[in-house]
Amino acid sequence: MHSVVLKNPRISILSSYRRCGDFSLVRRPFSSSSPSTPIDTLNTNLRPFPEYTPKKLSITDAELVHNLTTALKQRRPHSLDRTLIPFADRLRSDHLVWALFQLRSHPAIALSFVRWFRGHTRFVVPAEAQAISAHLALVSGRVGAARQLLRQGIASYRNFIEQVIYTYRHWSSDPDVFNLLFRAVVELRRLEEAHSLFFHLTAFGVVISVESCNAFLSHLPVDAALNVFVEFRLSGVRWNTVSYNIVICGLCRVGKLAEACEFLLKMNSEGGVLPDVITYSTIIDGYCHSGELQRAYDLFQEMRSRGLKPNEFTFNSIMALQCKKGMAVEAERLLIVMENEGVVPDSAIYTTLISGYSNIGSLSAVHRLVDEMKDKGLVPDAGTYTTLISSLCRCGRIIDAGMLFQEMLRKGLSADQVTYTVLIDGYAKDGRMQEAFRLHDEMLQAGLMPNIVTYTALSDGLCKQGELEAANELLHEICQKGLQLNVCTYNSLINGLCKSGNIEQAMKTLEEMEAAGLNPDAYTYTTLMDAYCKIGELTRAHDLLKEMLDKCIQPNIVTFNVLMNGFCAAGKLEDGQKLLEWMLGKKIMPNAATYNSLLKNYSMEKNMKVVTEIYRGMHSRGILPDESTYNILITGHCKARNMKEACYFHKEMIGKGFIMSATSYNALIEGLYRKKRFMEAKQLFQEMQDVGHVANKNIYNLFIDLNYNEGNIERTLELCDEAIEKCLIGS
C-alpha cells in the first residue's frame, strides 16, 4: 500500500511557500489528543504543495551547465572523472542543482553525477540537490537508492524534510516518497520527529501507508503506541492485523495481559480486523511467561475454534510452561497433537522437552528424545547440548557430561559462558575440583570471561570438599577482579559450612553478609534451618523461621519441606501432618516432595492405610506424583504385600517416563516371586537389568534357585557368575 495524497481543487497555489524556509516542522508530544481535522474527508484547510523555483543562473553559469550536461550525456563508458576534469575547477554547489534540471530525463546519469559530486571533498551537495536526487531515484524505479538518499539527507541536513516537500510537486508527484521519508526517520530512531512529520504531512493531504505506520508503532513504548494508535486512526490510517499484533505484543511484554485480551476483542468490534495466529500466539506466550497455564489453554482452544492453526511457537510456549511445572509427560502429549496437526517440531521444541524431562530426573526419556530428534534429521544445537550436559550433571553422570561437551566441540559448536558454567558446576558438585578448575582455564583461553555464577560454583565445590580456606581465597580473588559477591556466593559459603558441620561459623557468615549490605533470602535461611533439623535441633530451626518472617522474607516450599523432613526424621509424624494442614490453611500449596516425606515414613511403618489417605489428598489437590513418590508407594505396598497396588503404580510410573529405583525393583520382584508370579518376576528382572540397575544378592538367589529347579543349568551358572561379579566382587 502506498501513501495517498488527497486532492482539493478549491485551493489555489500559495506563493508564500516558494522557499524551503517556510516548512518548519511543528513538534508535538505523544498525546492521546486527536488532530483537529480528519483528512479522509476533503476540506478547505489542506495546504497545497509549494511550487518549486530554483535560483536564477547567469549566462556564464548557463553555458557551463549546458556544456557539462552535454558532456555527461555524450560520454563513453569511461569514468566520470575524465569527463568532468575540464569543469571541476569552476563547479559550485548551485551548478549541481541546475545540472539536475538538464539531466531530468536521464536519471541514471543525474544520480551518477551526484555521487561524483559527493565524492570530492571540496564540493558540498546541498540539501535541495539531495532531495531532488531522492525524487529522481524513486520515479525511475530505484527504490533502494531513494531510501538511501533520504536516510543520508535526514542524517546530514537540518532542513532536509522541508526540501523534500518543497521539491516534491516539480520533481516527483509520487506520494510514495513520503512513505520512504517517514520510514527513514523511524529507522534513524527519531521518533518525536516522525510523529511530527506524520501530522505535518496530513496538512498536505498525505496519508502515510499502514505498513510505514506499523514500522513506527513497533519502535514505540506501549503507552505511546496506544496513543498513536488512536491519533493515526483518526487521521485516516486504517490499521490492519499487523498493527493490532504490534500493540498486543507490547502489552504482553510489560505484563498487561488483560489489556491485550481487550485489544483482541476490539479487533472485530471496532477495527473490523480479524486476529491471526500471531495475535493468539503472542497472548498465549504472555500468559505462559506469567505462569497462567489454564488461561493459555483456554486461548489455545479459542484459537482453534476460530479455525486458526497453531504454529510451532504456540505449541512451544505452552510446552515450555508445562515442562517448567514438571509436566513433561503432558508436554510430550502436546507434541503428538502438534504432529497430528501437521506442525513439524524443530530443535527448539525438542530442547524444551529434553529440559522438562531433565528437570524431573527422567534421563531415559531424555535419551529417547535425543534419538527421536536425530531420527527426524534435526541437528542438536548448542542450546540442546547445554541442556543435555545440565541433565547429565544433575543426575551425577559427570563423565558422560564431559564426553558430550567434547562431542559438542568436535561438531564445531561453540560453547558459551552458560555451557562452561553448567559443566564446571557439575564437576564441582561431584567433587572433581581439579577438572572444574581445568575447565575454568579452558574457558579463559577460549576468550570467555567467567562470571560470578561460575566462581560461585567453584566456591561451592570447594566448600563441599571442606576446603573452606581455599574457598575464601577464591572469593578474595573474585573481589580483586572487580566482581561483586552476591547473595548466591554467600549462600554457597553458608551451605558449605553447614555441610561440614560448622553451623556456628555459617551463622557468623550470615552476619557478615548483612554487614556487606546484602539481604539474606529464603535459600539462606532454608539452608541454616536444614542444618539444624539434621542434627535434631528443631527449636533453633523454628526460631530461624520466626526471624525470617520478622524480616518479611517469604518462605518457599523448600523451607516448609525442610521442616517436614525434620519432623519426619525425628519421628514426629503427627507434627508433620499438622504442618501440612497449616500450609493448606494458609493457601501455601505443597509439592510432591512435601508429601513424599510423610509417605516415606508412614510406608516404613507399613501403615499403608495412612499412606493411601495422604496420596489421595495429594491427588485431589492436583499435585502430581514424581519419581520418588512412585518409588515410595511401590516399595511400601510390596512390604505390605499389596502386590496389586504395587504393580498398578509400577505400570503408571513407567507410562509417565519415570524409572524405578533399584530398591523398588528388588522389592517388586521379591513380592511377585512370593506370590508365585514367576513369569512377571522374570520380565521385571530383565527390565531392571536393561535400565542398568543391579539386583541385590537375595534376588539373584531367588532366580538361581528357580532356574536350577526348572533344570536350566546353563542359565543357573550364568546367574551364579553374574551374582559373584556384581554382588560380591562389585561390593
TrEMBL record:
The keyword Repeat applies. Pfam families: PPR, PPR_1, PPR_2. PPR repeats lie at residues 240-274, 276-310, 311-345, 346-380, 381-415, 416-450, 451-485, 486-520, 521-555, 556-590, 591-625, 626-660, 661-695. It comes from the Eukaryota. InterPro entries: PPR_rpt, TPR-like_helical_dom_sf. Keywords: Repeat. The keyword Repeat applies. Transmembrane segments: none annotated. Belongs to the PPR family. P subfamily. NCBIfam families: PPR (TIGR00756). This is Pentatricopeptide repeat-containing protein. It comes from Dendrobium chrysotoxum.
